[in-house]
Recover the amino acids of this structure.
């Protein structure tokens, strides 16, 4: 198995994911990241009302998002229609809360604080979770999904009632052959 070496730019990360050699683990690629914060900043988008989902690459096999969180913003309690997910804060900290159903209600089973040195992993079918920006200012995280997410279920904490929703992006970035980045 060939190691990708240090990944020092978002473009190199996108290329490593697109050209992922057979047998290469996605976690191995993510752990090869040595990207300065300034390199990520050109992909940040902010919304005072909700976190933003910025797509850096999407193939038939993977989807990589840069998610930007204002102070105290949080995701709904949700699960994905993907097989595997890795979450990696690159700036700030996120609280990850995981849930399960107990007597037809949601029960929190864990709560951990993730910072730039940590990775979180989830696999289907058990992936009920919520993320909360648990930092004094903004936080930013990479979310890698092995199969792209088409839809998710969002759960009401009090009742466990689920609603299926389609997912969308705030911005989609594309890298051309010359190294230029285009956004849509």
């Amino acid at each position: 198995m060939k190691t990708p070496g240090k990944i020092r730019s978002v473009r190199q990360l996108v290329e490593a994911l697109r050209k992922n050699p057979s047998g290469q683990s996605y976690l191995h690629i993510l752990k090869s990241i040595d990207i300065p914060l300034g390199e990520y900043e050109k992909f940040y988008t902010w919304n005072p009302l909700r976190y933003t989902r910025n797509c850096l690459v999407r193939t038939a096999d993977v989807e990589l998002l840069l998610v930007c969180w204002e102070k105290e913003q949080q995701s709904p309690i949700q699960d994905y229609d993907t097989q595997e997910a890795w979450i990696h804060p690159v700036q700030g900290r996120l609280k990850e809360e995981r849930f399960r159903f107990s007597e037809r209600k949601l029960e929190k089973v864990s709560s951990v604080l993730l910072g730039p040195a940590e990775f979180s992993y989830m696999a289907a079918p058990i992936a009920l979770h919520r993320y909360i920006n648990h930092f004094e200012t903004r936080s930013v995280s990479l979310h890698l999904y092995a199969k792209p997410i088409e839809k998710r279920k969002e759960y009401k904490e009090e009742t466990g009632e689920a609603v299926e929703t389609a997912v969308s992006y705030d911005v989609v970035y594309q890298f051309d052959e010359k190294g230029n980045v285009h956004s849509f």
